[in-house]
Design goal:
3 strands, 23% strand, IS3 family transposase, 124 residues, alpha+beta, Nucleotidyltransferase, domain 5
Amino acid sequence: MHRHGLRAQRPRAFRVCTTDSNHALPIAPNLLDRNFTPTAPNQVWLTDITYVPTDEGWLYLAVVLDLFSRKAIGWAMRDHLRTELPLAALTMALQRQRPAPGLLHPSDRGCQYASAAYRKALKS
């Protein structure tokens, strides 16, 4: 093949586009400001969604992580990316941990986290 100037085509790696931060929903300021060293549990909860490939299509896993303990304190898995997915993970974390007021909960500012339903759950 090389002698004839031919090259095999490699399949392109599939890359999942995970965050849609291009929305008109309100976004909270970054209060964490890269201070990743909380001094106690339930001061900072991080959250994100990951894609899990299966033989039947994609599943989506939303996780809430306590930054101090580095433990998953809430999670949910669904076959969709609607707001209900991270909201279920947040609800689990809130029910299990019962944090005091002042909790920081930064996210990637995706549309699920900026939705009215998610913000309402954070305020309550």
